[in-house]
Amino acid sequence: MSDYGTTPPPPPPPPPPSPAGGFQQPGYGAAPSGAPLASWGPRVGAYLIDYLITVPGAVIAFIGMPKVTSTDINGSVSSSSSEGTPILILVGLVLLIAAAIYNRWIMGGKGASLGKKVLGLQLTSERTGQPIGTGQAFVRDVLHVLDSVLYIGYLFPLWDPKKQTFSDKILGTLVIKA
Known about the structure:
Elements: H1 40-52, H2 55-64, E1 67-73, E2 76-82, H3 86-109, H4 114-118, E3 121-125, H5 134-147, H6 152-155, H7 166-171, E4 173-177
């Protein structure tokens, strides 16, 4: 017997449509958890807020630094200098370092630095969907050195499907809308 002349069976029906507000495929605007990925603008805003809290310490340290002033009035040059105030330098540096450690690594390790918290963002592990912890937050900040090469890594979220910087890709982290 031959099947010549018979028609093939019809193709299977298409899958049913996803329910309204259905799951978006990971890597295309959503994390594996389904949370939407943070866009570049809010990430930059969070970064700026994070560094604004270090400004008071930097200003205090700068005020304590030694200074040299030269003045030229009608061809007469006058110079003066100050030795600086070591205690102000120390207090400023301690404030600056404490703010960075608390905000970037302790709070960041819990999923949101002050800037991310203010703008409704969260830093999570791509694999688990949970905050990455203090150690990984520190390593992520160190790896931002790679992002700063010609600033390409910082701009990478503009065209990357997962909106990740180079350091995010290396550590497997995502910044999501909380």
